[in-house]
Amino acid sequence: MEETSRYFKDSENYKFILFVSGMSVKSLRAIENIKKIGAEYFNGNFDLQIIDISLQAHQAAHYQIIAVPTLIKVGPAPPRILVGDLSDSKKVLRILDIID
Q1: Where are the domains of the chain?
Q2: Closest by alpha carbon to 97, among 81, 84, 88?
Q3: Dist CA 100 CA 94 (whole Å)
Q4: Structurally, what CATH architecture does the domain formed by 14-95 represent?
Q5: Which pTM value belongs to this model?
Q6: For labelling, which of 25, 34, 40, 94 has a CA lying 20 to 30 Å from the CA of 3?
């Protein structure tokens, strides 16, 4: 499979929640990285919700977030959680159970 080919099935729409804290360099890097992964591997066929836990602490408590940045793949099932800067695209895709 080519590096730039899509990994998703056309009927699937991936849904992610990214938890960050403020607009720190780490937070901005994580946002940039997941948007890049979404554009490159899902051809934009993904929904990304960004939650700043410094503004929405109740969301962090609800999802039991203890470190940021944290990315949750909500769908398609199974859900997966990844903590870190998301800079290694292939590693992110493997952990999220999108590629082998």
Answers
A1: 14-95
A2: 81
A3: 6
A4: 3-Layer(aba) Sandwich (3.40)
A5: 0.85
A6: 25
